[in-house]
Design goal:
46% of the residues lie in helices and 14% in strands. By secondary structure, it is an alpha+beta fold. Among the domains are: 83-149 and 224-288 and 598-728, no CATH class; 152-222, no CATH class; 424-547, no CATH class. The strands form three sheets. Strands 1, 2, 3, 4, 5, 6, 7, 8, 9 and 10 form a ten-stranded antiparallel beta sheet that branches. Strands 11, 12, 13, 16, 17, 18, 19 and 20 form an eight-stranded mixed beta sheet that branches. The longest helix has 32 residues, at 302-333.
Length: 743
């Protein structure tokens, strides 16, 4: 493309026609009784799949607006306040994940991948606990995890009215933000003082829900004395590796045990914990998953989703795919060097993000999903228009949001060209040094203090070299991005290529710039030889005005930030409007805050066949023998051959329709009797559409079956101390004590 206009014209909003659908989300909420659907069904999605469904916005219910009547009437048990309190107090939050108490002695279970960093931190010299696994055969051998915590949610309270009273009285954005901070601080102090005393430090977090349309205060007890009890080997916890990520059937034994200790140095006595199910689940059983799902985009307008489809998510997918290909090519040709660099883990992170963004983009390109979203938006607008008071206050919000997206669409070329242009393992070191060098030279010529110059110099010198092949490929890819998305006539592209091809410009920059290597950079800085004639400095000097607006302040990032700020304010108003129409019957988007969701153990069709509701140890060994030692389906020596007492028919992983997302890793899946039956650890590819819409007929969450955890602990790891604890709820300090009970 030769100009911004040519490229940007591809991104004009094409809003879908919703036709003449006359019944959808609003009428379902108003007219369909809560006990109407059978378990797992979605009203409104039968005869016309493009019609908005009752649960399109999901089932990530909050505890402060617990769906007591819905759970009770739909699943036939008494989901009263006491039930929700027991569930809330037994479920836990750990860094980046979720977990659960499973004994009255502070014993905690979570995913292996959630505790992987903790396993590394307790590993001693000469050990390889990630590869070999860990088990403390006595209480004294449980290892303290440094800088770790477990949070227990002890209270949840809607504080929206208190926040809005303070904010709505302020005039202007700055004043409103100051008022918001002040009132939140007061709320935190007030609630904290009411929970003084007891074990653990009290933490109050005021969380914006419905994009700022509501506010809830979550009060936690934080326990900081947490110790490692047991963890499977990495090859079991991550069985199937990246190829199996976001897939099912699965065969991963993704579990670890921790323990919380009290201030007296003894295991914490906990009144609330989940019993360990011996019977597990069968097809059509209901499960409730409790955790802290990461942010979703279900409340976004159609115009916002179109921007993500055409620009933000599309750009992420393109970037991740191209950079991952560079890393993979280098790793395949230089495996030993790649291992020493930790390249395999870096590639997994990129691949995980690429799969997620690919699934999200597929969902945004699905016409049925977009038509359903459009139908739900139409019904929401009709509800606003039907009430004079709501129409006067919020009737034009959807149109205002669409106008913001139109303005953002004009920035699409820069969005693609500049995405992730930051220091890191996916960017040219030379280019980043050039950006810092411009700042350094401007600061030096502007009379900056020695301390300021030293700070920028340290940033430049802190950028390490990449292998030559990778550096060349990353630089060429970025220069190619400038040409592809900005066009050859753009000042940035002209400065980058200077009339050369991308390959020629890459070679020229690396050969002529003093910033090509860390060594030559240090020499240029120390000798005072670095100046604006350096080709990398010239390129960065042309780049920064377009990127961040230096020195004018009118660059891409400045414009995008301003539009994003307006978008956040509109989103908050839309959240208030949506809550005014639907109340808590439509739960808020996930926000890494505590949620409980319901689902049914149910198979699904894929690749022309039927996925079973659970897999077994038979499948684990079948995959090992099918793929072999040098594969992602390898098994540790401890597991070979299978122990003669290991029941290979034991369920290993299972699925349900529960509404989970990233952050739900380690979340306990429990029965109506609050017995734990599984640990959530992933979702299938079809479930990636849950960022935007909840479609239980497509997506499944994937869980480790607690029957497999018990079987492995009992037979393979010979961990009788823990097995007896989860069965009897008694604390055993040694294996001998547990063995005596077992006999």
């Amino acid at each position: 493309m030769s100009s911004n206009h040519t490229f940007a014209s591809q991104f004009r909003v094409q809003r879908p026609s919703t036709g003449t659908l006359i019944l959808g989300f609003l009428l379902l909420l108003l007219l369909v009784p809560l006990d109407q659907p059978a378990a797992g069904q979605t009203p409104g999605s039968g005869s016309d799949p493009a019609r908005a469904g009752r649960f399109d916005m999901g089932k990530m219910w909050t505890f402060e607006n617990a769906p007591m009547a819905y759970f009770t009437e739909t699943y036939g048990f008494s989901a009263d306040p006491a039930w929700f309190e027991r569930a809330r107090l037994a479920a836990l939050r750990i860094p980046g994940c979720s977990a659960a108490f499973v004994s009255p002695n502070g014993l905690v279970v979570t995913n292996h991948h959630c505790a992987r960093g903790a396993v590394v931190s307790v590993t001693r010299e000469g050990e390889s606990l990630l590869d070999d696994g860990f088990y403390a055969s006595s209480l004294e051998e449980e290892r303290s995890i440094p800088n770790y915590y477990v949070d227990q949610l002890i209270a949840a309270e809607d504080v929206s009215d208190e926040v809005f009273r303070a904010v709505d009285q302020a005039m202007g954005d700055a004043a409103k933000e100051a008022a918001r901070r002040e009132v939140i601080s007061r709320i935190q102090e007030r609630i904290s003082s009411g929970h003084a005393g007891g074990e653990g430090a009290v933490r109050v977090e005021v969380t914006a829900l419905y994009n700022g349309g509501r506010y809830s205060a979550y009060t936690y007890r934080r326990f900081s004395d947490v110790r490692m009890v047991a963890a499977a080997e990495l090859e079991l916890g991550f069985f199937g590796g990246d190829p199996d990520n976001f897939t099912y059937p699965r065969y991963a034994l993704d579990f670890a045990f921790l323990r919380v200790y009290g201030s007296d140095g003894e295991p914490l006595e906990t009144e609330h914990y989940f019993g360990w199910s011996l019977d597990g689940v069968q097809e059509n059983d209901v499960v409730f998953v409790i955790g802290n799902p990461g942010p979703t985009n279900r409340l976004n307008t159609v115009a916002q989703l179109e921007f993500q489809r055409d620009v933000s998510v599309a750009a992420q997918k393109s970037f991740l795919g191209s950079r991952l290909a560079i890393m993979k090519e280098f790793y395949d040709e230089n495996p030993e060097q790649g291992e020493a660099m930790g390249l395999r883990n870096q590639m997994f992170g990129l691949s995980n993000s690429l799969k997620a963004n690919s699934g999200r983009l597929d969902a945004l390109k699905d016409p049925v999903i977009m038509e359903r979203k459009g139908d739900g938006e139409r019904l929401f607008q009709e509800a606003l228009d039907a009430d004079p008071e709501l129409r006067a206050e919020w009737g034009g919000l959807i149109q205002d949001m669409a106008a913001i997206q139109e303005e953002k669409m004009a920035l699409a070329p820069e969005y693609f060209a500049f995405l992730r242009l930051v220091p890191g393992n996916t960017e040219s070191s030379l280019l980043i040094r050039g950006i810092y060098a411009v700042q350094y030279l401007q600061a030096r010529d502007g009379g900056a203090s020695p301390a300021q110059l030293d700070r920028i110099r340290g940033q430049i010198l802190g950028i390490t070299d990449k292998p030559e092949e990778m550096e060349e490929a990353f630089l060429a890819e970025r220069l190619g991005d400038f040409q592809r998305y900005l066009g050859s006539d753009h000042p940035v592209t002209a400065a980058a290529l200077e009339g050369r091809s991308v390959e020629g410009a890459t070679t020229h920059l690396r050969a002529r710039s003093a910033l090509a290597t860390a060594e030559s950079t240090a020499g240029a800085l120390e000798g005072g030889a670095l100046d604006s004639s350096d080709p990398a400095v010239r390129l960065a000097g042309a780049l920064l005005p377009s990127l961040v607006g230096l020195p004018s302040g009118e660059g891409f990032q400045t414009r995008l930030n301003a539009l994003s700020a307006q978008e956040r304010e509109l989103a908050a108003d839309l959240g208030r409007a949506r809550f005014a129409v639907y109340g808590p019957d439509v739960p808020p988007d996930a926000s890494r805050s505590p949620r409980i969701t319901d689902g049914v153990v149910k198979p699904y069709t894929y690749n022309g066949t039927l996925a079973p509701v659970y897999t077994t140890f038979f499948g684990l060994y079948d995959h090992f023998h099918s793929y072999g030692r040098e594969s992602d389906w390898n098994l540790p020596d401890r597991w070979l051959p299978p122990h003669p007492d290991l029941d290979l028919g034991t369920p290993l992983n299972f699925i349900s329709t529960a509404d989970t997302y990233g952050g739900n890793s380690g979340s306990p899946a429990v029965t109506p009797n609050l017995e734990i039956v599984g640990l959530n650890f992933d979702r299938n590819v079809e479930g990636l559409s849950r960022d935007f819409i909840f479609l239980p007929d497509r997506g499944r969450n994937i869980m480790v079956d607690v029957r497999a955890i018990k079987e492995a602990m009992d037979v393979v790891y010979d961990a009788d101390r823990i097995v007896q604890e989860i069965l009897t709820h008694r604390l055993f300090r040694t294996e001998a004590e547990a063995d005596a009970v077992g006999r």
